[in-house]
Amino acid sequence: MQVADAPACKTREILKARLRADLKVYADAIAGLQQNTGKNFEKAHKRADSARRIYEVARKKFNDHIASHGCG
What we know:
Radius of gyration: 16 Å
Order of helices and strands: HH
Number of helices: 2
Strand content: under 5%
Low-confidence stretches: none
Mean pLDDT: 89
Largest sheet: none
Shape: elongated
């Protein structure tokens, strides 16, 4: 069975949407680094680092689901 032939997996779609949302938050946080200096930069850096970690968790959950479920 090819990926295109695989039946739709609701969990995969939910995880994919979460991954995309977390990636957008991370990208926005990175963009915020360029707009902040001084103390504001430290806050922006913490937000970006937190967003990165959250995105990495979402990516791992998505990849783990695909690996275990085979719905790639």
